[in-house]
Amino acid sequence: MTSVACGRRVRSAARAAATSCDSRAVAPPAGVRTDAQIMRHARMFAQILHETAGASPGFRTANGSSRPPILCDIHGVTAPPMTFWEEIQRYVRFDDDDRAALRALLPHARPHFRAIAEEFYARLREHPAAFRVFSGEAQIERLKGTLVQWLESLLAGPWDGDYFEQRARIGRVHVRVGLPQRYMFTAMSVIRAHLGDVVRNAYATAPDALGDAMRALEHVLDLELAVMLETYREEYVERVQRLERHALAQLEDELARSEARYMSIVESSAGLVVAADADGRIVLFNSTAERATGIDRSEALGADIAATLCAGQAADRFRARVADSATGRRVPPFDEQLATRDLGTRWVRWHLATVGRGADAITSALGIDVTEERNLARRARRAEQLASLGTLAAGLAHEIRNPLNAANLQLMLVERRLAKLDAEPARAALDAARAVRDELARLSGLVHDFLSFARPAELRVAEADLRGTVRAVCDLLAPQAAERGIQIAATLPDEPLRVRCDEERIKQVLLNLVGNAMDAARTFVAVEAVESPGDAEVVVRVVDDGAGPPDDVNIFEPFATTKEGGTGLGLPIVHRIVTDHGGTVDVTRERERTIFAVRLPRAES
């Protein structure tokens, strides 16, 4: 509001209030107004002051400095800035004449102050809603003395900033003790009536002095009402704001607790919980996802979700499914190999869901590690195959061994007869017979291996320290490795590596793995045995610097071999022995090295 408009509003309000007071059918005596007029005038007065003073709430200093200074342009002349207290004095025309009249009235009124205080609190006793704010008679007696002091300063002044601040404090106390606002108006009416009687009695023979005193009394009581109204309003506003702040704090606290519960659920989830924004950038990456991938959360946040969780063509498939989910299509659960950092091969079954659309879309990916499930399914299929193979092997062994034994016997007879002959053709035939016998022996060994794979012997389980088994295998193969220029090194802990196993069968496993490593290695073979922390298992790793098996060959399947002359049953037998012990065996390729890892359950302490 401009300064000119401010002045016009104040003058218009004053004229309207004056008209309202003077338009009664029966006018009161000069200088005297009814209670209804007083209340209406005070409320209008406070409202206009709020509108002209601006929207800033509150006043807390003697000169009302928390409210913007009021600038008014009256009759084209800009007045200097005024405080709230100065403005309301100006509004009611409280001037030096009023001050002089009030001081002159004080000696006449002072003898009546105690009686006014008694009547004031007697009237409050008639209203339980007002009287219940008091704690007892002792407090009321003290307050009567305070009211006498208030009446003294009402008429004695000085009506300066300290006076204003004192009145404002009284109003705020009324609000804090819970005195309803209506009683503040009616209590002021009691004081107004009593002091009016004092004025009329004191100046009964002096009409001019009577008018001046009544006018000054009305002005100062209007100021009191204005200050009280303002403090009530400000205290109520502060109370509402405090309640709002408290409610907001409660909401924020509840939101924080809700978010904490949500994050606790997400963090404690056994599944991988990952979320991405509309651009496919990760915004949520729980601790299970960190452990499964080996990627720290700080590194994952903001990265592409598909490239972080998958590799190669799997990442392209994952990205396409995320795009389908973002368009609202239902994406069935799907399995993909998880991209990990040196944590082995893991398979995860993903469930995708998208909330929101467009730039606000968030796609959540809940992943369940199904590696063991897939391994169990594979082992179940293998067990079925082996069961069928065992039945076939039993029949084949019977059908093949008998002819083989017969052929060996006949061949031995042929060799004996040829050995008795001294002719050159006989010696050539003898060499041929021996070659046939070697092939028959190899065929017999193949049948034995096939039977061992299809129908393994029952395990003879006992507790053993795998350190001794590893040393025995390395010592046995070390001379053969040295002849090939291969170095064998074993790394073993100081503490025992106790497992429950058939030690001879585990030695067979290690002989096979280390022997294969020697065949593939260029310069070295390393055997390492350790306890896997937290997994209750012992791990034996056989490492070589050879080329490794081809990616497209499942070397643990029967008859799958990459060696010339190999039977393709060595590694399947290794797999069968290890799984019969409740363990696992796998092969990985890291930093130009091939690693076979055998994991066996650790023996109970």
% residues in beta strands: 5-15%
State the end-to-end distance: 87 Å
Question: How many helices in DSSP terms?
Answer: 19
Oligomer: single chain
- Name the overall outline: rod-shaped
From the structure above, extract its key features.
605 residues; alpha+beta; Globin-like; Beta-Lactamase; Helix Hairpins; five-stranded antiparallel sheet; five-stranded mixed sheet; 14 strands; 59% helix; rod-shaped; disordered N terminus
Question: How would you describe this protein?
Answer:
The protein is α+β, with helices and mostly antiparallel strands. It has four domains: about 5-245, Globin-like (Orthogonal Bundle), CATH 1.10.490.10; about 270-370, 2-Layer Sandwich (Beta-Lactamase), CATH 3.30.450.20; about 375-455, Helix Hairpins (Orthogonal Bundle); about 460-600, Heat Shock Protein 90 (2-Layer Sandwich). The chain is built from 19 helices and 14 strands. The strands form four sheets. A five-stranded antiparallel β-sheet has the order 4-3-7-6-5, with helices on both faces. Helix 4 (about 95-110) packs across helix 7, helix 4 crosses helix 10 and helix 17 (about 465-485) runs parallel beside helix 18. The longest helix has about 60 residues, at about 205-270. It is rod-shaped and about 180 Å long. Residues about 1-35 and about 50-75 have low confidence and may be disordered.
What's the short version?
With 605 residues, the protein is an alpha+beta fold. The protein is 59% helix and 14% strand.
